[in-house]
Amino acid sequence: MFEGKQIDIQGFQIPSNAPLFLAILSIHVLAGLTCAISGVFATLSRKQHGFHSKAGNVYYKSLWAVFITASVMAALRWKEDYYLFILGLISLSMAYIGRKAVKNKWPKWSIIHIIGMGMSYIFLLTAFYVDNGKFLPVWKNFHPVIYWLLPGIIGIPIIIRTLLRHPLSRNYFNGRQKA
């Protein structure tokens, strides 16, 4: 069903040319691109109901599609791709926690939301670069350890900056009110 020969598409090594595998991979790639774009929009938009929430919902729903398709592909090639399942599970779990914190207004919900969604995005990008960095024009020149570390090296300071600037979390850190 998924057996087939390895093929090269635009410099990317695809492990199988089986039609069902390529269909799942196509959904995975489209969902991943949707996550990447909607995640940027949610990050850069004003943190309030409206555009931020809509972009976040698109990110979350697309992340489910990424996780499901990645899980199927990892199960088929577990020995080579098990770590992608783990990264996907962590990414989805962080987004789930971040989303639940807002919906249920947990104590310090804004802090949990910012950290959860930010870390979800970092793990999404880490999985992408670990799997595809060796095929990307600039990234292929980097040591593979960079694929694992750079999303976090860039993303964690952005999360910290957001925590320090967002009114609800900033006020919490200054002792003025609860987040």
Task: Give a verbal description of the structure.
The chain is mainly alpha-helical and 179 residues long. 73% of the residues lie in helices and 3% in strands. It has six helices and two strands. A two-stranded antiparallel sheet has the order 1-2. Helix 1 crosses helix 4, helix 2 packs antiparallel against helix 3 and helix 4 runs antiparallel to helix 5 (144-165). It is elongated and about 60 Å long. 30% of the residues are buried.
Descriptive keywords:
179 residues; mainly alpha; 2 strands; 6 helices; single chain; elongated; two-stranded antiparallel ribbon
Residues in helix, %: over 70%
Number of strands: 2
- Secondary-structure content class: mainly alpha
Tally of separate domains: 1
Report how far the terminal alpha carbons are from each other.
51 Å
The run of helices and strands is EEHHHHHH
Shape: elongated
Give me a quick take on this structure.
This protein has 6 helices and 2 strands; from the N terminus they run E-E-H-H-H-H-H-H.
Question: Helix and strand layout, with pairings?
Answer:
Layout (H helix, E strand, L loop, with lengths): L6 E3 L2 E3 L4 H26 L6 H26 L1 H26 L5 H24 L11 H22 L1 H7 L6
Antiparallel strand pairs: 1-2
Helix pairs in contact: 1-2, 1-4, 2-3, 3-4, 4-5
